[in-house]
Amino acid sequence: MTGSSGAEAVVVRVDRDRCIGSGMCALSAPESLALDADGRARPVDRYADGGAELTDGLAEAVEYCPVEALALHSAHGGYRIAPAE
Amino acid sequence: MSTENSATGAGTGTAPLPPMHCLRHLEPGPPRLAALPTGTPVWLVSRHADVRQVLTDPRLGRAPLYAPDAPPLMVTPNILDDPQSMLNIDGTEHQRLRRTVQRAFTPRAIARWKPWVASVVESLIDELIDRGSPADIVAAYSRPLPVAVISRLMGLDNLDSKRLAHWSDHALSTTAFSAEAIGTAMTEFAAFGAEVIAERRADPGEDLVSSLLAAAAEDGSITEGQLVALVIGLVVAGHETTMTSLGNALVYLLQDGRDAWQRLASDEASAAAATEQILRAVPLGDVTEHMPGLLRRTVEDVEIGGVVIPAGSVVAADTGAANQDPEVFTGDLRTELFSPLAAPMLTFGAGPHHCLGAWLARMELELALHRLARRLPALRMADPVEDVDWRRGLLTRSPDSLRVIW
Ligand code: SF4
């Protein structure tokens, strides 16, 4: 258990088959998500691995992804936080 | 290059046109220069990866197409040329506007409407069966279904479908109507939009207009003009393209592709797979000389598919060609109808302007095809495909009427 931000630490997963490269997430949560050269989103830094704080921007990015390609998971427990199944 | 060619208006053409599933596409290749009907040079982009790049790369946008220095795009501008429309705004401003409506259109939000859409589908089929064979499947089914769905979603219970058809045809006209006729229709349509907004402000409900007004009030930066454009844009986009797609799917499935009809009836998963393939392979429009693809303009030099396209260039992403790119897809509906797509289709675009209604359109098509095949296993076209009466002079092409028997 090396997660950095205590109980709130989250990681974000991108379903790259679903992602249509809207870029909405990279605009609302630039600290957590970026667009790759192929135009698809990818988690950055600790949001890919290890976990970091759940910001408002990230919560919003997950909620507004047009194709629901983003999912938030607990960095510790691994369970899914959002969107609800 | 003037507006006099309105003689090719809806319904007046006589030459038989190929059905949409038989259209020939541009052979995909590197970007190449062509011209729009206005004489404006345009870079045609046709390969799957290149089209995807044009639509997702932030160095290309929609707003620069309407900047003061922009060259003319359309001989007769239509609703797609409204600079206030969400389609023609980029970046953060676009994102804020899009956010006000996005919530209602996520796959999960749309799935909640499924039982209701299914009930509309079933009641239209009931009426069709009651009236008996032969019937016009466009008048009875492919036209009223999307209108009913978008009217309900937006709470437009008393929307007269004739008025709606009039506005929609003008909104997406290429040559069917004069600039003046389009202007008049769009002014009326905007007044209708403003009226709906005023009504819903006074008396909010559970509908999409009410929820987008609430989201816009919270955001605070969205102008009245943008809201009106959004409401009328949703009305047009919400039914016109679905009607077109369903009509053209039926032209294929009730004749050339008739073998697949039983399997479409068998289960929803088959209908879902077929919907994806049909959306990929059967384009919405064929007016490539007016609109060779989804237009963007470069804000700096961009290399696409090995070609450097200079800043300020107009680029057309030919999604129809990309959807048939032999490097990616086989293109054969007859053998591939129930196979999963080899790559994402580009019918709904990609990037920030990816079609908001993609999930709604998919669900409507899937239910419409599956339930119709289940209820009417013997359904087929009554006349040869050469006799189909097409809606002409618009950005989309679909049958104006289609006689079927069972
Ligand atoms: S918001 Fe969704 S579709 Fe858009 S880039 Fe991010 S993950 Fe991809």
Structure description:
- The complex is a heterodimer of chains A (85) and B (406).
- Chain A is an alpha+beta fold and 85 residues long.
- Chain A has helices at 24-28, 56-64; strands spanning 10-14, 33-35, 41-43, 70-74, 80-82.
- Chain A is globular, with a radius of gyration of 12 Å.
- Chain B has 406 residues and is an alpha+beta fold.
- Chain B has 15 helices and twelve strands.
- The radius of gyration of chain B is 21 Å and the shape is globular.
- The chains are: A alpha+beta (85), B alpha+beta (406).
- Iron/sulfur cluster is lined by residues 14, 19-25, 41, 65-67, 69-70 of chain A.
- Chain B: Belongs to the cytochrome P450 family.
- Chain B: Keywords: Heme, Iron, Metal-binding, Monooxygenase, Oxidoreductase.
- Chain B: Residues 1-20 are annotated as: Disordered.
Span between termini of chain B = 47 Å
Strand order of the largest sheet of chain A: 1-4-5
Bound molecules: iron/sulfur cluster
Number of strands of chain A: 5
What would the principal axes of the Cα set say about the shape of chain B? globular
- Please report the distance between the alpha carbons of the first and last residues of chain A: 26 Å
* Weakly predicted, low-confidence segments of chain B: 1-13
Q: Residue share in helices of chain B? A: 40-55%
Class of secondary structure makeup of chain B: alpha+beta
If strands are numbered along the chain, what order do they take across the biggest sheet of chain B?
1-2-8-5-3
- Extract low-pLDDT stretches of chain A: 1-6
Count of runs of 4 or more consecutive helical residues of chain B:
15
Share of helix among residues of chain A? 10-25%
Rg value of chain B: 21 Å
Whole-number mean pLDDT of chain B: 86
What would the principal axes of the Cα set say about the shape of chain A? globular
The pair of chains with the biggest contact is: A-B, 17 and 25 residues
Oligomer category: heterodimer
